Amino acid sequence: MITIGRLADYAGVTTKAVRHYHERGLLPEPGRDSSGYRRYTAQHAIDLVKIRTLTAAGVPLARIKGLLDADEDTLAAAIAEIDDDLEDRIEQLRRTRDQLAQLRGGDRLFVSPEVAGYLDELRELGVSERHLRLERDGWILMQTASPEDAARWIAEKRDLLADPEFRALCLEHDVAYDWSPDDPRLPALAERTRSWFAGRAEPQALGNPDIARLAAQSLPGGSSPAWERLARLMERP
Amino acid sequence: MITIGRLADYAGVTTKAVRHYHERGLLPEPGRDSSGYRRYTAQHAIDLVKIRTLTAAGVPLARIKGLLDADEDTLAAAIAEIDDDLEDRIEQLRRTRDQLAQLRGGDRLFVSPEVAGYLDELRELGVSERHLRLERDGWILMQTASPEDAARWIAEKRDLLADPEFRALCLEHDVAYDWSPDDPRLPALAERTRSWFAGRAEPQALGNPDIARLAAQSLPGGSSPAWERLARLMERP
DNA sequence: CTTGACCTTGCCCCTGGGGCAAGGTTCGAC
DNA sequence: GTCGAACCTTGCCCCAGGGGCAAGGTCAAG
């Protein structure tokens, strides 16, 4: 005949939890001694360890209640199911660990793997970090707006990066970000960009200005007067 | 500028969770459009994926709040710590799986491994299941009353089981459980038990009657008139 | 006799949201 | 132009699984 504290210690739970299980009807209330203290038997300890094991497995108390006096087969089936669930949860935690590692490593966590690869290529190309951030944010917005379109576009963009002229244009646009909108080099750059677009099959869906405009809409500091002028110059030749 | 639903889908959380993060100050409230809808930017998506990753790792929201605008080093240290914690939790879940398997397998979960081994030896010896249950419950109570004493006692008991006479006595006591308290074989059994005890070093701490009495106290159906008579016979020769 | 460790009931608090109500909005189809 | 579906808004209460604290009663040792 043991007290609540000893029982709780034995099972590795708190006395509070034991009383909670009484309230929920999981563990039968034991008899009281002359002073009103609860006095427990070995059977209570067995039940409590069972409850603790199931709660540790994440089984809700309401379900444990039904499981405690279930027959062998029902219990075995339930345990098998709970075990499968545990396996899944372990796998899930493993994936979370991977993502946690990516949280340190850069932007891979926030965009699709394809976009992450594209941003890596851009970085290798040598564009500025600011440009990279603009691109990343643009792709995030595109992925929310239309994941399928974004997937198609990113594939085409990565193809485009194989073209030396496109790579050169990317770098030019990057440095042009800081130019004055009256810079005399802007019309030439616009013309060069337009003529390169003209040689392509579907220029309307893939323009850099699209991204720039999207990014500019979403980021207060993302707008560049020079880029805005470029966009105007390219729209009306 | 995306709506709350698109943002939530992108990050893989519910709109409810997003509003919850606003209330907690984890995610800044975005501007509203003319109809009062929240309109989010790419930065919100980045923050939200970060929050989701950390909550999936079990980090409390209150702590995430501090982590979101922490500097590189602080964040790195925190992530390392969280990762360690995840590793621990995975290990813990693995142990829970083992315990869950034992929940099907028998009594190993409810007593210490030493007691489980002792009960196995008793089972092999051929005592009844009822006797095993009585023993198990007795050991549970002893372990709650005094874990150190129980550990010492169980070690001695396992030694004793090597003695053929003790094994024979165990089996005799087992069958005697159902005898009438007036059974003429009881005095002879008591005398045989007493004389065996007499040949031992510390008979007072290891008597079977101790266990029987403890078990009898705790289990309503655990008392046997024959065993009670045996105990009296052995106390007063 | 005191002191510290137990025990009792009761109440409110916390996290991390879910569910539902009672509306207003937007968008595409007809 | 209007209908329905699918959005969005705020607000409120609910859940598990306890923790913390109050305001006592009890017990065992020194």
Task: Describe the protein.
2 copies of one chain form a homodimer. Chain A has helices at residues 4-11, 15-23, 42-56, 61-68, 72-105, 113-125, 129-145, 147-160, 164-176, 185-198, 208-218, 225-235, and strands spanning 31-32, 38-39. With 237 residues, the first copy, chain A, is an all-alpha fold. Chain A has a two-stranded antiparallel ribbon. The longest helix of chain A has 34 residues, at 72-105. Chains A and B meet through helix 1, helix 3, helix 5, helix 7 and helix 11 of A and helix 1, helix 3, helix 5, helix 7 and helix 11 of B. The structure holds a DNA duplex (30 and 30 nucleotides).
Features:
homodimer; 237 residues; mainly alpha; two-stranded antiparallel sheet; 12 helices; 2 strands; rod-shaped; DNA-binding
Q: Sheet with the most strands of chain A?
A: 2 strands, antiparallel
Number of helices of chain A: 12
The average pLDDT of chain A is 84
Q: Which structural class should the secondary elements of chain A be placed in? A: mainly alpha
By oligomeric state, this entry counts as: homodimer
Low-confidence stretches of chain A: 203-221
Query: What is the N-to-C order of secondary-structure elements of chain A (H for helix, E for strand)?
Result: HHEEHHHHHHHHHH
CA(first)-CA(last) distance of chain A: 94 Å
**What Rg of chain A do the Cα atoms give?**
32 Å
Biggest interface in this structure? A-B, 50 and 50 residues
The general outline of chain A is rod-shaped
Fraction of residues of chain A in helices?
A: over 70%
List the strand order in the largest sheet of chain A.
1-2
